[in-house]
Amino acid sequence: MTWETVIGLETHVELATRTKIFCSCTTQFGGAPNTHCCPVCTGMPGTLPVVNKKVVEFAAKTALALNCTVNRRHRFDRKNYFYPDLPKAYQVSQLYVPIGVNGRVSITTAAGEKDIRIHELHMEEDAGKLVHDPWIDQTRCDYNRCGVPLVEIVTEPDFRTAEEVVAYLEKLRSTLEYMGVSDCKMQEGSLRCDVNLSVRPAGSEELGTRTEMKNLNSFKAITRAIAYETRRQIECIEEGKRVIQETRRWDDNKDATFSMRSKESAQDYRYFPEPDIPPLELTEEFLQGLRAQQPEMAPERQTRYQRDYGLSEQDAKLITAQKALVDFFEAAVACGAQAKEVCHWMLGEMMRRLKEEAIEPKQMKLTPDNLARLIALVDAGRLNRNTAAKVFRAVFPDNGDVERYVQDHGLEQVNDTALVEQTVARVLKDNPAAVADYQGGNQKVAGFLVGQAMRQLKGKADPAGVKQAVEKALCQVHEGNI
């Protein structure tokens, strides 16, 4: 039997406000355990929450960017459950009237374009974090994250493959970064995803029993978890067993999911309206102001870069994929570097180093003006490209000064024509067999001779100029033997 996978996502996004959703505690990542919390975010008796206006603004901005209908009047609700990292024993969320509903995100995969429907977008507070210490076999609670503002974006079950899921999350991350509402650092939990998955016979309209895989925070983990859970459910059904609706945990080391608890329903959480926070009402003037603030997004920038800078469609798409890359690109161009050259270095050496060091563009220390100075040295003929690549690799980790590195290591390009010609003559004299091969019709041997000359010039000459000098010298030798 052929099976079809049906997937829906619940994506939790930490908003980039300086303070928490209902108190003035910092949202800064890290810090000593339990130092970024107060009586309000830990739910001490007698405390009252006050809604952070910036959270509402960021949530509304996100809803508009995802083509949602924004509910002008919405409210908060209490979601009641006990868990050690939730000191209140309830979470303030939005169930009955969320801030945004009925949105849409367009994605593109190898199969073509597809719209993913957004069921709702709502605001809520984050819970704390449980830290297990295997050495003493204890689990401890860190409440620093309690009260950090979230938006939860819930899709319809519109995904059929892991490729579609990753395409959606990449588009979502790009949108959020361009809007400036979240840093989307998956490694810090700023963007994490719950995957609801079921399988059904191909062609069937009836949904199967779903499981929920919690808090996946990398595209690689999401892809592997979807593959595993799909296989597990198919094998379960084909063996005559029943898939249980439950919450499962993904173990990255064991490459498998494991049961955590039965899947709760809304009734299990005993939702009721939050009594300490009155309903919120957004004016049309407020929403119009947010619409006017919407920045130029990736597709529009891609079109502009192709038109104004002459970038290829593929290069423009890669540069605009992440806001950090766009910011770096535009800053380097503003420093006077040619756009195509900046693009060349970013998509070549820079991406190579980012991959080698396993860091994101926003984490690198190299500055746009430093890259622009390196490009200027190449344009001025003071460095050839091969040497410039070595300089780039040397200064990349700590943003070392380009000019100082070139000066300290004596890397400026040799532009002495007489020296180049003398070196080439010496190379030809030292390699008579290669010269004879060239005279015998083996044109490729010229490349060997160019390499020998570049080696003697310590790589500091212009390769094109050396090649021209070698070809000229070989021609003279050939003519002298006629």
TrEMBL record:
PROSITE patterns: GATB. Its EC number is 6.3.5.-. One of its GO terms (molecular function) is ATP binding. The keyword Oxidoreductase does not apply. Keywords: ATP-binding, Ligase, Nucleotide-binding, Protein biosynthesis. It catalyses: L-glutamyl-tRNA(Gln) + L-glutamine + ATP + H2O = L-glutaminyl-tRNA(Gln) + L-glutamate + ADP + phosphate + H(+); L-aspartyl-tRNA(Asn) + L-glutamine + ATP + H2O = L-asparaginyl-tRNA(Asn) + L-glutamate + ADP + phosphate + 2 H(+). It comes from the Bacteria. Residues 327-474 form the Asn/Gln amidotransferase domain. One of its GO terms (biological process) is translation. The keyword ATP-binding applies. It holds the Pfam family GatB_N. InterPro entries: Asn/Gln-tRNA_amidoTrfase_suB/E, Asn/Gln-tRNA_Trfase_suB/E_cat, Asn/Gln_amidotransferase, Asn/Gln_tRNA_amidoTrase-B-like, GatB, GatB_C_1, GatB_Yqey_C_2, Gln-tRNA_amidoTrfase_suB_CS. Heterotrimer of A, B and C subunits. Allows the formation of correctly charged Asn-tRNA(Asn) or Gln-tRNA(Gln) through the transamidation of misacylated Asp-tRNA(Asn) or Glu-tRNA(Gln) in organisms which lack either or both of asparaginyl-tRNA or glutaminyl-tRNA synthetases. The reaction takes place in the presence of glutamine and ATP through an activated phospho-Asp-tRNA(Asn) or phospho-Glu-tRNA(Gln). HAMAP family: GatB. Belongs to the GatB/GatE family. GatB subfamily. This is Aspartyl/glutamyl-tRNA(Asn/Gln) amidotransferase subunit B. It comes from Flintibacter faecis. The gene is gatB.
